[in-house]
Design a protein that fits this description.
By secondary structure, the chain is of the alpha+beta class. The chain has three helices and five strands, in the order ααβββββα. The longest helix is centred in the first third of the chain and has 20 residues.
Length: about 90
């Protein structure tokens, strides 16, 4: 399912226009993104938690050339599903 399909499902279920539902999805995703960029975790009860994790710099080896490569530090978004979410599978 992509963003447009999600908006269509919301529009059908809640009797919104597709345009209004797409705007709603965009607003929700923008707010989640803004919170994560500012370092704030996002906790959605019954769904899961999003957080930003720091990955330290490290050395890696190219498997073909066997050369050592420096991998810079980075940030990764992590998602941990809630127990209710896990039970549905």
């Amino acid at each position: 399912m992509n963003k447009v399909q999600l908006a269509e499902k919301i529009a059908e279920k809640e009797n919104f226009t597709k345009k209004a539902a797409l705007e709603l999805v965009d607003i929700v995703l923008d707010q989640i993104t803004e919170a994560l960029v500012s370092g704030e975790p996002v906790k959605l009860s019954g769904f899961g938690n999003f957080s930003v994790k720091e990955k330290p710099a490290r050395l890696a080896k190219n498997p073909i050339t066997k050369a050592t490569v420096k991998v810079p530090a980075s940030k990764k978004v992590s998602f941990k599903p809630s127990e209710l979410f896990k039970e549905k599978f």
